[in-house]
Amino acid sequence: MNTLNIADQQINYRRSGNGPPVLCLHCSSSHSGQFKPLIQSLQDRFTVFAPDVHGYGGSDAFPKDGNPWFYHDLKVIEALLEQFTEPAHIVGHSLGGALGYMAAQRWPDRFKSVTLIEPVLFMLLAQANSPFIAEGHYATSMVHGHLHLKLPEEAARSFMDFWADEGAFDAAPEHVQDYVVATVSRVADDWAGMLPNLPGTPKLEAVSQLTLPTLLMRGGATRRSAAAIVELLSERLPNAQLVEMEGMTHMAAATHPGVVNPHILQFIDAQSN
């Protein structure tokens, strides 16, 4: 693993391969290892960078200074961009999709294409007055409520079952359960950063300003809220294509890379020609 220093916090990241840069951003309660299969498929012709964002994997937590998670994690992206000599392809899943979207909006000239796998941009649902924002309100209240009552395992269970179906936490291996419990306070920070009126938060009216080639992906069996976010983006992004994966849930990028990754590879290759 390689390391960065961001405001005296150590950030770990993977770097593998040779060629144009690809930046991969993982979901909540995960880490850069989520992308090992994709890295293996890309590294013969691309240089792949995959950070553990603050508080996940081997990276330090961000300082609790009143700023939301994306304020700190965008600094990780900015530091990695300094290593690139040409525009990068960016791939993000869930939280990583939200971060990737924010990075592409902030530095559009630094990216060549954008792949967003169910980005959790719940603030866009709120701004659109979508009824599906209620799912996000429920999920975040379960996480924050259990943590307030000092029940981190229940917070972790509610989070994992929300995104990966009822019973997913109890069915997971012990080391996975332990990791989700250990990182659930950062999960709470992730949800807090989805509030619609935070300084620097994405705005619905600005979505159309992102003109980069964009691949939007969603599972056919995902949460209605996640599907609605992708729909909002699909309707507004001027240069986007949508892939719906039949029968897949929100966690398909981690659980079914054999289904998800071929679409990503085809898209990146097409944008590289």
Automatic annotation (TrEMBL):
Q: Is Transmembrane helix tagged as a keyword?
A: no
Molecular function in Gene Ontology? hydrolase activity
A Pfam family this protein belongs to? Answer: Abhydrolase_6
Keywords from UniProt, A to Z, are: Hydrolase
- Using the record's annotation, list all stretches that form the AB hydrolase-1 domain: 22-260
Might you report a single GO cellular component term? Answer: membrane
Which InterPro entries does the protein's record reference?
AB_hydrolase_1, AB_hydrolase_fold, AB_hydrolase_sf, Epox_hydrolase-like
Task: Name the chain's protein.
Answer: Alpha/beta hydrolase
Source species: Actibacterium pelagium
